[in-house]
Amino acid sequence: MTRRFTTGLLLTIGSAGVLSAQPGGGNRGTAVPPGDPCPPGMTEVRPRNCQAPTLPPPSIVDYRPRSTLVAPVHLIPKAKYPAIDFHGHPTSQLNSDAALTELGRQLDALNIRMMIAANNVSGPALVQQMAVIRASTTMRDRVRILAGVNFGGVGPGWAEKAVAQLEADVAAGAVGIGEIGKGLGLSTRKADGSRLQIDDAALQPIWAAAARLKLPVFIHTADPQEFWQPLDYNNERWLELALFPGRRYPAEQYPSFETLMTERDNLLRRNPNTTFVIAHLGWHANDLGRLAKLMTELPHVHAEVGAVLYDIGRQPRAAHDFFVRFQDRILFGKDSYQPEEYPYYWRVFETRDDYFDYYRDYHAKWKLYGIDLPDAVLKKVYFGNALRITSRLPQAGFPK
Ligand SMILES: [Zn+2]
């Protein structure tokens, strides 16, 4: 039997009734009632029995244990099939022929055939970038641009102007709309000063124009759910939020995550003839059941995988089944352009490797696993679905 003494030492009474220190050299044990967490600084070493380390514990930024797991390693520097990055954010790469040519060299090394620039550009900037792309002998079929929509000042007369600009952008070469940023819903204000809701009726003409012009609408709504939660030691993204405090959404300043999801889903429901691609798996990569429900209800909704690899790779069996089930509606995309990060995606999608590092420690203190997608699914996710829903893309250069 065990008894907790006021000294905090956990002593056991052996069969002979003699008090002794815990076997194994432990000390300072503390019993806790069933269901209670251990006190701060302690960890559960036996059921309902907590203990503090005998050395000062490292901070979470300094604790970098070497994995001793010996398991097959399949690094995948190049995608198995030519990929379309539907969520590209090239920056200076579209400014000159030389920069564009260098982008092509980097994409070749990754087997990315095409990048779709989702930089929310419109008007003269879009015309200028398309001119650089069209003038390139090597890249003219390998970069395309989504048109931005300016949601500032929504009020009387806004829709006519926005639709006219969209038509002009399409004439200049835009292949879709996006990336509609998270500002829509979170912070964008209407002309009257009120928050512009994602499902505001004043925006309907844009969604109707997208359907008429057969433009996919690429939309990023909200952010990871933990950004709305208290920043305590139960927050799965504590480190990220401590590194980047601006990513938090205090309730007194911002609509809730669920409010934004409700508005987004209203938008999707009201526009069944418009093709939508929700970025970052709609921020439901941590709840694929919820995403499956949404995508089952709304067959015009597609989902893009950028920047949520840490959630895909920590549930390899569920993610594999989800990708197989929705293989016609998942699109590859990366988000921020860092060439060295793409191979992590290839490895998660193409292998069955166990327990390997993600590229950003602060997003995810856990390891990833390959989800081992069949070739037919890989082809659709890498390029087939993007080609099908984006009819203005150059369609050559992809396998059958
Ligand atoms: Zn983006």
Q: What's this model, at a glance?
A:
By secondary structure, the protein is α/β, with parallel strands linked by helices.
Written account of the structure:
There is one protein chain. By secondary structure, the chain is α/β, with parallel strands linked by helices. Helices cover 31% and strands 15% of the residues. The chain is built from twelve helices and 15 strands. The protein has helices spanning 97-110, 123-135, 158-171, 183-186, 204-213, 238-243, 257-270, 288-297, 309-312, 316-325, 342-350, 375-389, and strands spanning 2-4, 10-13, 19-20, 30-31, 43-46, 49-51, 83-89, 112-121, 143-147, 176-180, 217-219, 276-278, 301-304, 330-331, 335-336. The strands form three sheets. A nine-stranded parallel sheet has the order 14-13-12-11-10-9-8-7-15. A three-stranded antiparallel sheet has the order 1-2-3, with no helix packed on it. A three-stranded antiparallel sheet has the order 4-6-5, with no helix packed on it. The N and C termini lie far apart (69 Å). The model is unreliable at 1-25 (pLDDT under 50). The structure holds zinc ion. Zinc ion binds at residues 87, 89, 118, 179, 220, 335.
Fraction in beta strands: 5-15%
Count of helical regions: 12
Instruction: Tell me the structural class.
Output: alpha/beta
Beta strands, count = 15
Give the neighbour order of strands across the main sheet.
Answer: 14-13-12-11-10-9-8-7-15
What's the main sheet like? 9 strands, parallel
Approximate shape: globular
- Give unreliable regions as ranges: 1-25
The distinct ligands, each listed once, are: zinc ion
| SSE arrangement, N to C | EEEEEEEHEHEHEHHEHHEHEHHEEHH
Q: Radius of gyration, rounded?
A: 26 Å
Helix content: 25-40%
